[in-house]
Amino acid sequence: MPVCCCENYHVIRGRGTSRDNSEETGERTHLRFERNRERAVSGRGFGNNINRRTTTHFTARNCYPALNVPTVTLSSPTICSHCHAKLFHTETSTLCCKGGLVNLPNISAPPELLELYTAQTTEARNFRQNIRAYNHVYSFTSMGVTFDENVPAFNQGIYTFRAHGAIYHKIGSLLPENGARPRYLQMFIYDTEHEVENRLLESPGLHIPTLEKISSILDAINPFVQTFRQLAKQPNLQQCRLLIKERPSFERQYSLPTASQVAAILVGADDFMETNDRDILIETTSGNLISIKEYSGYYDPLQYPLLLPHGTYGWRGDELLERTERTSCCDYYSYLLQQRSNTPSVLLHAGRLLQQYMVDMYIKVETQKLRWIRSHQSDIRAEHYQGLQDCLYSGENDAGNVGRRTILPSSFIGSPRDMYQRYQDAMAVVRNFGKPDIFLTMTCNPSWPEIINELSPGQTPQDRPDLISRIFHAKLECLKDDVFHKGVLGRVVAHVHVVEFQKRGLPHAHMLFIFNDHDRLNSPDDYDGVVRAEIPIETEEPELYNAVLKHMIHGPCGRLRPNAQCMKNNVCKKGFPKPFIDNTTHGIDSYPLYRRRDDDRRITLGRDDNLVIDNGWVVPYNPWLLLKYDCHINVEICSSIKSIKYLYKYVYKGPDWVAFEVRSGQNYDEVSKYVDGRWICPPEASWKLFKYHMYQTYPSVVRLQIHLPNQHQVRFQANQTVSNVLADERNSRTMLTEFFKVYNDGLESTQYLYVDFARHYRWLIPTRKWIKRRRNRIVIGRIYAVSPTEGERFYLRLLLNHIPAPTSFDNLYTVHGHRCATFKEAAEKHGLLEEDNSIRECLAEARNFRMPSALRRLFATILLYCQPTGVRTLWEENHKAMIEDYCSTSTSNNNFLINRLLCELNNIFEQYNKSTKDFDLPRLSDGIQYSVDLPGLIENELSIPISDADLDSITLLNNEQQIAYKTICNSITEGNGAIFFVDGPGGTGKTFLYRSILATFRKEGRIIIATATSGIAANLLPGGCTAHSRFKIPIKLEKVLNCGFSKQSDMCKLVELASAIIWDEAPMANKKTFEILDRTLRDVLGNDKPFGGKVLIMGGDFRQVTPVVVNGTRLEIIRSSIVESFLWPEVKLLKLKENMRARDDVQFAEYLLRVGNGEEPTVENDMIRLLHTIVMPWEGEHSVDDLINFVFPNMQMYNINCNDVEYMETRALITPLNEDVNNLNEKCMFMFPGDSTTYYSFDSVSDDNHNLYLPEFLNSINPGNLPPHKLTLKRGCPIMLLRNIDPKIGLCNGTRLICRRFGRNIIEANILVGHFKGLRVFIPRIPLKSAEDYKMPFELTRKQFPVRLSFALTINKSQGQTIGNVGIYLPNHVFSHGQLYVALSRGVSSHTTRVLVKNYVIEGHEDPWPPPYSLPSSGGFRLEILHSGFALQIPDLNAFLCCSAEPVSI
C-alpha cells in the first residue's frame, strides 16, 4: 500500500472514519461515487466535518514515492460468451458483438498466406515489413490518399499511417493506353507473361519468390482474380467489358462470393445485363477512372486482396435500410477487429497494412455521415434557424445565404458547431464551479505490459493500433476512477476531459478538473504538494528517478537536438529548457513557475553522451500518478482564470485540422472544408470504430431551447396535412413554452430562472413535458447561445437569464404593468440594457436633487471615469445648476462664476494628473481670475479644516503617546529627516496620535501629508488619502522604479513644502511601495537621504494581516514586509501598549494582546481557546441569524427616515472570505426593512467577435474588486465604495456610506465614517475593469455603481476600524497570519463582541476541547514562519520589530 503524508489543508481540522469499499463493483460502486461527488458539490452529507474523506482521499498529495507506490495492473481479460472475443478491463460484449446480436463469419486465409503473416522466417518478416507494398501491387483499385511522410521519417516513437483529407478508391480500364505499362487490375489481364516484372516496377525491392507465392494463392481462391484471368483469355478482349456486381440482397449476409457472383464479362456492344446503381461497368480502354462508392460491398476486397483473399464483401450501406437485423458500419468493423483465441485473425497480423485498413474503414464511416448531411441541408438549416443550435457567426440567419452554404451541424462530432457547443458547456461548468484547478495530460505508454503480453511473436506495439487504443482506454478509466471518484488529488466536483491523438498516433487524454472549495490549491506551498518538476535523487527514490527519466523528460531539443519537432525559429515552442528557480512562484500567464533547483546534477540520456539534461528539462508531474500508471502524465496547476482561454482552446481544438477556418459567406462548403483539413491516425480510427467516448463533461449540461413566440421547430411527416400538424398539441410544446406552463398553472412555488429550472426538473422527450426530479441530481442548465445581431431573440435570452418564473411571453413583455412593444424595450425597462443617453439622464437626476456641490463632483467624476461623448453639450446643460450655490452680487458677472466653476473642476482633475484642458470645456476667460496662485493640490492641503476636538486631544494623550508625540514633533520642528514606526496593537490610539500631530502642525500653516494603505484607515485621518492614490504608486510593482509624478508636477511642489508624511497601516503595504516612494523622493527632491530627507511616520501592527501576496508562499509573504526592506535599519521604533479602545474591559484587552503576541496557550496545529464571554454557540444555520440580531438588534424596525447614522456606524459583521461576506450581506438585506431597488451591470469583453463569452458567464464573474452584476439596495442600508472616486472628500476605496435616494442612473448617499462623516454625495455608474491579478483570459469591463453592501466586511477590509458592536463569523478557521487577532481587536469589549464558529472539531480529540470553540492562533502562524528558517530566527514579536530598527527612548 502506498504511504503518503497528506497535508492539513489551510488550518481546517476534522475527524472522521471511513470503511474500505474497494470490493464494491459495478453499478453499485458507480452510484456510490456519484452520490459522494454530489455531496461534495452541495455540501450535503458531510456535516460540520469538511475534511471527512475516503481512505484514498489526498493519496497523491505530498506523497513519498520511496515508500512503494504500486503500479496499476489491469484485471485479466475475459471472454465473450457469444463470440469468444477477448475483452479487457471495463469492456463488455457490447463492444465486440452487441451482446450476440452481430454474428459474422471469420476472415480466413489459406495456410500458405497465414504463414507469411505469422512465421518468423526471413521471407515472412520481409513480407510483413513491406506488407503495404505487397498489397499495393495486387490491389485492383488505386487508392488516393495523402499521408504524413514526416512521422515515420523522424525515427522517433512508433510508425503510424496518418492520413490527411479524403480517401478515394478508383478503378481504371481493362487495358492500359498505348505505350503505358499495366497497373492495378490490368496486371491480371494484360502482359501476364511479365506479370512479376510489372509488379516490381510498381514497387521495387519486393522479393520475387514471395510475389510468385501470393500470385498462386490468389489465383486459386480469389473470385476477382479468377474473373480477370478468365477475361485475359478472351480472344476478342478489345470488345469486352467487365461488370463488377454488388452482392444480391437475398444472399446470406457476408457469405464468401464466387467468381460468377462478383463480376460478369460482357462481350460486344449489344450484350445486355440487368444492373443497379451500385454495379460498375469497366470499359476496355476508356482512359477514365471510376470512383468506388464507399457503401459498396466490393469496396474492401478490391483494395485489400491480401486481407480479404477470398474476396469477402465488406459492409454495405443499405444494410441499415433493408434488413431487420441491423448491423452498423462501426459494429461490423468492431466485430472484425476482435482478438479471438479460437480463430487466428489475418487482420490483427497485418501490421502496417492493418493501420491503413483501419484508417480507410473509419473514413468510410465518416464519409457516409457527411454524405447524409450534404443531402439533408434543408432540414439542417431549418433546425438551425429555430434556435436549437448555437449561433456561431454573426449574420448567419441572413436569408441571402439560404441554399448556398453547406452547413456541418453540431450533431456531427468534431464540427465547429460541436466544438462551440462543448466550449460553451465547459464555460457553463466554470460559471457554476469556478476556474479549473488541475490540467492533466495522460499519454499512452506502448510498452505497458498489458500491450506487450498480447502481441504475437515478432509483433511490435505499432502493429496493433487496436490494442493500443483498448489498453489506453482501460488505463484511462482507472485514472478517472482514482482522480474523479476516489479523489487522490482532492475531491473533484466538476471535470471536462477529451481524448486526442499525437502525430505519431499515440492517444492522450486532457483533463481539466475543479476541486471542492475546501480542497483547492491556494498557494505555491500547496502546489508543491501536488506537482514536482525536478529529477529525483537516484539513491533516495530509485523507482521515481527511472520513471522521470523514462517518461517526463522533454525532447531534448534546442542545441542538443536542433531538428526536434518542437523547434520553431530555433526556439522550443514549449519553452524548454526551463529556468532554474529555488521556490515555486506564480507565472505571468497560465501555469506557475515550479521549483527547479540548480543542484549541479547533469545526467546523460541513453548511450548518447551529448544528450545531457538537468532539472530544466523535466515536464511537471505528480509522483504518485507517475509511478502508478507508468506513463507520461503531465500535471499542471491552473493557477489563474487567465489560463482558461488557453486550456479550453487547447482541449476543444477538435480533430487534427491542418488549417480549418469557419467563416460566413456565400457558396461556402463546411463539409468540404472539414474533409480537406482532417488528419486520421490508426489508433484514432480504432477508438472511434469501438465507439469510445471522445469527450466527457461532469456535471452534465442541459441545453435549453430558445425561440420567439410561435417560431419554434415542428417535426412532421411528409404525408401529414398542415391542419393535422397544427391540431397536434405536442407540436406546440417546447422546453420554453412548457417552462412557462409550469408557472402559469401554479405547479411550482419556488421562482427559478430558466437556466436553474433544469436542476429541479427534467425534460421528457416522448411527452414533451417537464417533470420534477425525484433525486437532486447535479446538472447545469444553459440556454443556447444567441448572437447580439439576432435582435429580439438575443433580448429574449437576456430576459430569461434575469427574470424568474415567467408565465408566458406576454409576461416577459410586461414591466411594472406596462406592456412593451419589443423584448428590447422590456430589457431596457428592467435595467438590463444601457440606454444611449444614460449619462445625460444621470446628470438630469442629480440636478433634480438640487445639490450643486455634489453635482460638480459628479460632473467631474463622469468626465474622469466614463469618457462620455459630447462633453460640451453636457456642460451647456448642467453648468448653470453647478453654480447655483455660488454667492453672486449684482456686480458679479456670469464669466466670473464660470471661471470659479472651471477652477474647482480643475482642482478635482489635478488629483488624477488631468486638467480642464483635457476635456472639451470652456477656457478660463482672460482678465478674470478666481483661483489663487497656489496649485490646487497645495491649496487643498492648506484648506483642510482643523477640528477643536483634534486640538484638544493633545492634552488627552497617555504617557506612551506623549513620548511618541514629542519625539516626532521635535524631529519635524528641527527639519531633520527621520523614519518612525509607531507600533501598537489594535486600540492603542495610533490614529488618535496621528490626528494630534496633524492638528498641531496644520494650525501653524504647515503641510503634513496624511496617507494610509487602506481607504478605510485613510478616511479616519483629516485630509487622508490612500498612499497609492496620493503618490501615484502603481498597482503592479514588479517592473516599476518610480512613482507616477515628475519634478515639474504639482505633486512634487506639494512634497517639497510638506514637513512630514504619515503612512498608517504600513505593515499591510508591500515593501516595494516604500522603496519606490523612497527612490522617487530622493530623485525629485535632489536629496540622497531616505525619502529625500522628509520625516516619514509609519504606523501599524505587525500582529495584524500582512501584505497581500496573491497565493504567495510564506516565504514570499515575509519577504514582502517592510522589515525585509533595506530601509528598515533606518527606522526608529515607537511603542504603544496601553489599549485605549478596550480599557473598560481589562480582561478582554489582555486577552487580545496575548493572541496578538502568540502567547495564548494552544493545542495541536496552533489552535487556541476563545473566551467564554464572546462565544456564540453553533446550533445550526439559524445561529447565523442570531449573530446578525446581536449586531443589528431590531433591524426590522430600523427607521430609515430618522437618520440614525450612529446605529450603522458602530455595527458590522466580519468574516474571512468574500463569499461569506456576500452571503451575510444577502441575509441582512432580506431582514432589512423597506423596498428594494435592483441595478444590473453592463458587462462586456473587447474583441469577442465569435461570441465566446456569453453574457451570463460575464455576469457570474464576481471578483472582490468589482461590484456584483446584480446590486440590490434599500434606503438606509450601508454600502462600501470600491474605487477612489474623490479622495479629497473621503470617497476612497473602502469608504462606508448610507444610501439615501435612488435614481435610475445615480445613488445619493451619506458618508458614514471618517473626517467627512455625514457629507452627502452622488455616486454614478462608472466602467470598471477587472484586476489583472484575477487572471482572466480577457479584460472584463463592468459598468455598475462602484459599491457593495457593507453590513458585513472581510477581516482585511475591517483593519483599522473600531466597531462598537462586532460579530465575527467563521464558517471555517482563519487562513492567514493575523486574521483572528484583527477580527477580535475590532471590538471594544467582550460585551459587544461575539464570535460564531461553525466547524470547531479538533482532529485527534474524541470530545471537543473545552470550551468547544477553537481557532488557529494568528500568532502561531507568524511564529511558525519565523522558526522555520524562512525569515528571522527570533522568538518573539519585539525581537522581530527591533532586530534592525532603532528603538527610541526619552
From TrEMBL:
Name of the protein this chain belongs to: ATP-dependent DNA helicase
EC number annotated for this UniProt entry: 5.6.2.3
Protein origin, superkingdom: Eukaryota
Annotated SUPFAM superfamilies: P-loop containing nucleoside triphosphate hydrolases (SSF52540)
Major enzyme class: isomerase
A Pfam entry, by short name: PIF1
Stretches assigned to the DNA helicase Pif1-like DEAD-box helicase domain: 957-1163
Annotated family: Belongs to the helicase family.
Any one GO biological process: DNA repair
Gene Ontology molecular-function annotations: 5'-3' DNA helicase activity; ATP binding; hydrolase activity
Keywords carried by this UniProt record: ATP-binding, DNA damage, DNA recombination, DNA repair, Helicase, Hydrolase, Nucleotide-binding
InterPro entries from the UniProt entry: DNA_helicase_pif1-like_DEAD, Helitron_helicase-like, P-loop_NTPase, Pif1-like_2B_dom
Cofactors required: Mg(2+)
Positions of the Helitron helicase-like domain: 332-512
Domain DNA helicase Pif1-like 2B stretches: 1256-1299
Reaction equation(s) it catalyzes: ATP + H2O = ADP + phosphate + H(+)
